[in-house]
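can u pls check wat happens w/ protoporphyrin IX containing FE
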Amino acid sequence: MNPEVTTETAPNDPTPALKYDRMLVVLHWVLAFGLIAQLGLGVWMEDIPKDPPGIRAQWFNLHKSIGICLGLLILWRLGWRVTHSVPAAPLGVSPFLQKLGTWNHRLLYLCMVVLPVSGFLGSSFSPYPVKFFGMALPKLWDASPEGKEFFGELHELSADVLMTLIALHVIAALWHQFVKRDGLLSRMGWRR
Ligand code: HEM
Ligand code: HEM
């Protein structure tokens, strides 16, 4: 275990945390894999030609269905996160880098919320119903080109911000692992 690590306990949780809770670990890695795949799918599907008709719509529908599942997992993760203790920021780095890490995590969470919500709202303003693995969801309101445009732009912007934040996050994790060698990565690992 890394000796340079302090603990931070949630107000109503008597157990100080040295590592992330196992549920948070599983959700972190499932979502890391899922979000990176979903970002790749989103960028790739934009280039699918509209002709012959159908193929592009099939991939878009798959993207929407996966996005809704990821949105539910993110909701679950946020609920778990606010009700469980997590390790405090590592002590062996400067206060500036600690703050940078904290803000990286906060903004990652913000993008994880904005992406599925903006994707869903943008799609629900289109003339077609959102299909969840083939099942048409109820239409919430009338189609609106302005609403579709606004949430579409927000969706694209938050995807770009998320990709940048993930790149910084991974660089930081690799720096801890191979330059600082402080075992930070193991805090997000399965072994207790
Ligand atoms: C889509 C990709 C990813 C997202 C959205 C993501 C998101 C996050 C978030 C939000 C946290 C803060 C956890 C919390 O306080 O609740 C975190 C922690 C962490 N992530 Fe990721 N992550 C991703 C990929 C990765 C990858 C690829 C690595 C390793 C190379 C990694 C390593 C870590 C580590 C080590 C921590 C714990 C940091 C600490 O102990 O302070 N993450 N991640
Ligand atoms: C966390 C989940 C999600 C991620 C990471 C994600 C990511 C992306 C990305 C990277 C793009 C391409 C953006 C561009 O380059 O223009 C995209 C497009 C799109 N996404 Fe998502 N998405 C998510 C969830 C959703 C959901 C839940 C829906 C709808 C129910 C959705 C609907 C769409 C649509 C319709 C487009 C095409 C937008 C357009 O061409 O105007 N996405 N998404």
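The chain is about 60% helix and 5% strand.
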